[in-house]
Structure prediction request, 84 residues.
Amino acid sequence: MTVDEEARAAVLNRLRRAQGQLVGVIAMVEAGRDCREVVTQLAAVSRALDRAGFKIVASNMRQCLAGENAMSTDELEQLFLTLA
Prediction:
């Protein structure tokens, strides 16, 4: 994957944040915390991962549509749908 450094840093930041949130969710489950609290935090992890995925796709859109390994618009659409 070739992305500019700024986009790469943003993706890594989002993934690290999600990783930290997931560690927190695991601790909550281990501690027997309230189901609503756990699900709320799990939803936050899911959103963080979704945002990271969208950032990867968005920052690589030109690369995905051009060059040797160009994707068709149908393939790109399927890639987006895997994040939904």
The helical segments are 5-30, 35-59, 61-65, 73-83. The chain has a mean pLDDT of 86. Residues 7 and 58 are 9 Å apart (CA to CA).
